[in-house]
Amino acid sequence: MRIVFVCPGTLRRNTAGVEQSVYYLAQYLKKEGHEVEVYCVPHENPAGRVTYDGLSLTEFPGFSPNRAFYFSWELYRTLRESHHDIIHAYGYNSLPTMLAVLAKKNNEKLIITGASSISSSPWRKMLHPLLNVYYHALGAKIDKLICVSDYEYDLFTRKINIDPQKYTLIPNGIDVKRFSSAKKKRIPHMILTVARLVKQKGVHRLIAALPFVLKKYPDATLHIVGDGVERGALEKQAAELNIQSHVTFHGHIQFEKLDMIIGLYSNAHVFSLMADSESQGLVYGMAAATKCPIIATHSSAMKDLVKVGAAIGIENPDNAEEVAKGIMHSFEKPLPTFDLDQVIWSWDRIGKEVSRVYQEVLSPRKTGKTGSKGQ
Predict the structure, then answer these.
(1) Which residues are in the Glycosyltransferase subfamily 4-like N-terminal domain (predicted)?
(2) Hey, how many other C-beta atoms are within 10 angstroms of the C-beta on 245?
C-alpha cells in the first residue's frame, strides 16, 4: 500500500502533537511493510526531499505567518502529479489538509485526522464556519474523518455536515512504554507545563498562580517547555511579579531530544496546562504515563481526564488563587488511581486501528463510530 501523510510543520523540528502523531504512525506502517511518505510545510528553511529516521520526508516551501496556515502551492502540485493509495492529512483547520482535499484524485482514498487545535486564535475561530462549509461542499472527496476524542467527535458531527458513516474515533497516542518505564525522580514542588507559547494555551495563568503557591511553598518552581509569540510577554509577566528566579523557560525541545522531555515529566511534582480548550492534548497523556499528577481546565476534552480520575479540573482558570489551590492540592495528596488506557493509547494499538480504517475504505463496508476509548 502506498501511503502519504500530509501535515503542517516538519517532523525534523516539531514536537507538537500533530508531528509526533504522524511520525509514530508512519513508523508503524513502514514496519508493517507499506510504502510510506510524509509531505509537510515547515515555517522556514524547507530541506526538500530528505530521509529522516528512516522515513521519506519531503519539505515544501510555503507561506506560514506566525507559524500558522502553512500554504504551499508546491505541495498541492506534487499531490496532483503523484499517486498514492491513501492520502492521510492531519489537521482540520490546516491549509495542507484543505489542499489535500482539492488534490485528491478518484483512484485515491483520503483520510483526515481532525486534530483540530480547538484552542486556536479568535481570528482562526472566525474561519471555522467557512471550513465547515468547505468540507461539506467537498465531502464526497473525504473517505473517512478520524476524530481524536469523544469531544472532537461530538463537535465535528454537529458542525460538519458530511455522511455520518464517514466518521470514526481513534485517539492520538504516545510511546507509552518509553514514558512509563522512565526512572522517576520527583523534585518537590516542581510544576511542569509543555505548550506552544500562545495565549490560548494559558501559560500566563500558571505564572499568575505561582505567587500564591510560593506563599506556602517558597521552593516551588515552574518549568515551561515550548516557544512561541507570547514568550516575551510571559517573561515580562514573571519579572513584574518578581518570581523570575522561580520560572525556567526551556524553549523548544526538538523531537530528537525526547528523552529530555521525558526526564522533565519524570522529575515534575505536578503537570499543569491551563489551555482554553483541547481536542485531546497529548501532553496530558505523557504526564499520566509518567504518573505525574495533572491539573487541567475543566473544559472540552480535558473533562474526560477529570471524569476518569486522571486530573483535577479547574472551573475558572482565570482565577489565579483557584489554580494555585489545585496545584497545592496535588502537592499534598497521593496520585489518584486510574486506568491509563482510558487516558492514552499506545501507537501499536492506534496503528492497528488506522490500518483497519485504510482497509475499510479500500474495501468499503458500512460502519459508524469506531475505535472509541471504551472498546
Answers:
(1) 17-178
(2) 8
Terminal Cα distance for the chain, rounded: 27
Return d(Cα 342, Cα 11) in angstroms, integer: 27
Distance, C-alpha 40 to centroid of its chain: 16
Structural contact between residues 114 and 30, judged by C-beta atoms closer than 8 angstroms: no
CA distances from 276 to 86, 299, 330 (A): 34, 8, 21
pTM higher than 0.90: no
Q: Identify any residues that bridge with 257 across adjacent strands, giving them in sequence order.
A: none
**Can you point out the beta strands (E) in the chain?**
2-8, 35-41, 48-52, 55-59, 86-90, 109-113, 144-147, 167-169, 173-174, 190-194, 221-225, 247-251, 270-273, 294-297, 312-314, 345-346
38 Cβ contact partners less than 8 Å away, ≥ 6 residues apart: 4, 5, 7, 11, 22, 26, 55, 56, 57, 58
| 229-278 tens-digit pLDDT | 999 999 999 999 999 999 999 998 877 788 999 999 999 999 999 998 78
Determine the Cα–Cα distance for residues 13 and 321; give it in Å rounded to an integer. Answer: 36
110's CB contacts (< 8 A; 6+ apart) are: 86, 87, 88, 89, 100, 101, 104, 141, 142, 143, 144
Domains of the chain by range and CATH?
2-171+345-362 (3.40.50.2000), 176-342 (3.40.50.2000)
Nearest by Cα to 344 from 156, 175, 154 = 175
Summarised one tens digit per residue, pLDDT across range 295-342 is 999 877 788 888 888 889 999 999 999 999 999 999 998 777 778 887
User: How far, in Å, are 78, 132, 300 from residue 119 at the CA level?
Assistant: 31, 17, 10
Q: Which residues contact 350 (CB under 8 A, 6 or more apart)?
A: 24, 25, 28, 170, 171, 172, 173
| Inter-residue contact 192 to 223 (CB < 8 Å) | yes
Beta strands in 175-327 (DSSP E): 190-194, 221-225, 247-251, 270-273, 294-297, 312-314
Rounded CA separation 4/89 (Å): 8
In eight-state DSSP terms, residue 269 is S
